[in-house]
Structures are given as structure tokens and as C-alpha cells.
Amino acid sequence: MQVPSGTARRLSLALAALVSLFVVSSLLVLVHMREIHSRLVEMQARQHAVRSALEVASAIRDSYAHQAHTLILGNDSHLHFYETAAQRVNRLTQVMKAQASEPEEQAWVADIERAQRSLDTLFREALLPAVLSGRKEDMDREHGRALGLVSQMEERTDRLVSHFNRSVDEAEARVSELQSSAFQWTLFFLVGAPLLAMGVGVYVVRSVARPVARLREGAARLAAGDMHARIDITTPDEFGELAHQFNAMTAALREHQERLVQSEKLAGIGRLAAGVAHEINNPLTVILGYVGMMKKKAEGSLREDLQVIEDEAVRSRDIVEDLLALSRPLPAEPEPVDLRALCEEVVERLRQGGQLGAVRVDVEGEARTAGHLTKLRQVVLNLIRNAVDACGAEGRVRVLLAQTEKGAELHVEDTGPGLSVTARERLFEPFFTTKPSGTGLGLAISQSIVQAHGGNLEAAAGTGPGAHFTVWLPATQPGRA
Hints:
Blueprint: H1 6-73, H2 79-99, H3 103-133, H4 136-223, H5 238-297, H6 301-327, E1 335-338, H7 339-352, E2 360-364, E3 368-371, H8 373-391, E4 396-403, E5 407-414, H9 421-426, H10 442-452, E6 456-460, E7 468-474
Parallel strand pairs: 2-4
Antiparallel strand pairs: 1-3, 4-5, 5-7, 6-7
Helix pairs in contact: 1-2, 1-3, 1-4, 2-3, 3-4, 4-5, 5-6, 6-10, 7-8, 8-10
């Protein structure tokens, strides 16, 4: 599964924040609207309960009125009306009982039911018989009891009405509060959403538009030929990675261009050398031949002068040979090369030839490559001989070998004075040398050989006070498996 890039992740988070604000605000408003609806339903139910309680109170008074008419008239002519009123009280009490949701309300309704049953029993079994028989004392006593029950029922209905009205007021206050809160959240979303959108827009400009502008500017500079163009984007996202890759590409193009320039220089020198080598070698051969014959007959100062001529002619011949080496192609087939054995062989030859003096040369590590033994020997010989010359009378040269997944590495370090920045920049140019008697072709030839093997030769400051040369060679020849 591909992990989303840094910019894509941040843009997704910004968009998610905007959407989340909308969703949260909408959910809060919906929750408030739902609770408002619930409270309105509750208010409506409580208002119905208030009407039911008032109807119960009215029915109780109507029922008592028919009892009072029975007392006043002294007969049972209102008995039918009383029974109808009592049934209405019972029916309305059941309706109110169903509307009573709290324990306290249910207790008050139960008190009304009990008082109604007691009042009905009192009227039928005591008060009505006393009226029909004309017992005045019993009528007064039972009427007092009936009046007490009616007062109790009216007091309970008053409590219910007050409690129901208080619930309605509380629900109405809660509805107002919820409406205000929903309005505030809606206002917050209407104000916050544009502000957040503006913030996301600014963030997109900073995170996307500006890096893209820098990339476009860098590409334009590169297209204009500025090989030192760099893009300074260090953010940990794909733009930073793209800038890093762009800078690496620019460095690679610059290095490739430098190599092309160097190759053109070497090719030009090679073509020049190939064109004049034979013409120069012929007179040099004649000069060396005549000088050799004249040295056999000459004596004294003349012999010394002839030796100088011979030395200079040999030096000229070596320069011609070095020039020809720049244009000679590699042999057709590479072969496995043990770089450790090759380096030890070169060191031993230099030691036997007396060219090491008191300089200590150490070879460390192991590495193998595929190449051309004679050419690679020339590279190693040149690097070690230069390092020995840089060390002076006494010093140390370290040849470090390392095998990597991509190929072989050969490092040559010395304890000499090192190389200046200017010298490192021109070190591989033909005829450039820091030696008083050098031709300036050795490192150019070595680099040409290493590049022909598909490798690279570089000079660095070194881990110590001296110079540090690094040769990288692939495991196989370029274009071969």
C-alpha cells in the first residue's frame, strides 16, 4: 500500500478539518433541533396534562354540586346527574394518570382516585340514605366528610396544574436556550468556515504554490545554462524530495558536462598526439641513436653534454608515449582482477626499484573487479608513486580496499602537505602538475583509464593532513552482465 505524500497528507488534513467543521456544526445543530423537537413535544404533552387536570377539577366540582343539590332538595332527583359527573371524573382521572410521568405526579393522581372512590362510597352509602330518611344530623356530618374529600381532591389537582405548568415553563426555557445555542453554532460555522477556508487557501499557497514556483524558477535557470542552480526546499515532503532530486540532477549534469569537456580535451590531445607521434618519434629515435654513438667516443664535458641531450630526448619520448596512452582504446575483453594482489605487486616493484625510500606503504582490505590488468596497474602505480613523492623523505602511504554491493573502492592516502582547493579543481587537466619535474599527464591518463572501465577517480581533502584519492570501479565492465 502506497503511503500518501507529505503535501497530500497535509492537504487532506486541511480539507478534513474544513469538512469536520461542517459536519460537527451540522451535527450539533441537528442534535439541538432534535432536542428542541423533543422539548416541544413534551411541552405539548404537559399542556394537554394541564387541561386534563383542569377538566378533572371542573368535573370534581360538578360532581360535588350534584351532591349539594341532593342535600338541598332532600331527594334523589339529581342522582342520575351525579352518576354521570362521577363517571366523567373517573374517566378524566384515568386520562390524567396516563399523562403523569413523574412519581410525585402519579402519587397525587392516586390520591385523587382514592378520594373519589371514598367520596362516591360516602355519598351512596351514607349521605344519600340520610337525605332520603331526613336525618339532619347524619346529613350534616356526612356532608362535612364529603366536603373534606372534595377539598383534598381540589388541592391535588391544583398541585398537578402547578407542576404541569412549571414543567411547561422549564421546557419552554430549555427550548429558548437550545434555539440560542443552535443559532450560535450556526453563526460560528458561517463565520468559521470562511476563515478556515481562507486558512486552507493560505496553507495551500505556502505548501504548494511557493514550492512549485521555486521549482519552476530552478528549472528555468537550468534551462538557461546555469549548471549551479539549486532549489532550497528542505520540507519533509515530495517537494523537498523533488528539490533534492533536482539538485542531485543538476550536480550530475554539471559533473557530466565537466566529464564531457575533459573527454573532449583528452580526445583532442589524443588526436593531436596520434597525428604527430610518428613524426616526432622518428627524429627522437635518430637523435637517441646518434647521441648513443657519440657518447662512446666523447670524453669529459662533451660526454656530460651528450648525456643531458639523451635525457631530454628520453623525456620527450615519454611525453609522446603518455599522449598516445590517452587515445589508445582498452583491450577487447576484460578479466577478473584481484586489486589486493595488484597493489602489493606495484608496491613491491617500487620498493625493488628504490623509489619508495624510507616511505612506508601499507595495503589494507580486499576488493575485486573486472577490468584490464595492465591499464589498472598503470593507475595504481601512478597514484602510489604520486603519494610517495608527496610524502617527502619519510612518510606513510595507506592503500585501503573495500568491496561494496556496487563494485570495488580503492583509496590512496598520504601524509604529505595535501592539495589546495585550486589544485583539486585542475588536478585531472592534461599538463597540470604540482611537481617541479612532472609532465601533468599521469592523473589525466589514470582518470581516462578508470572512466573507460565505467568507474570514477576523485581527489578529496583526506582524513589526515595529506591528499586522498578514491577510485571506484564497477563489479563488471560497462555493458556486460
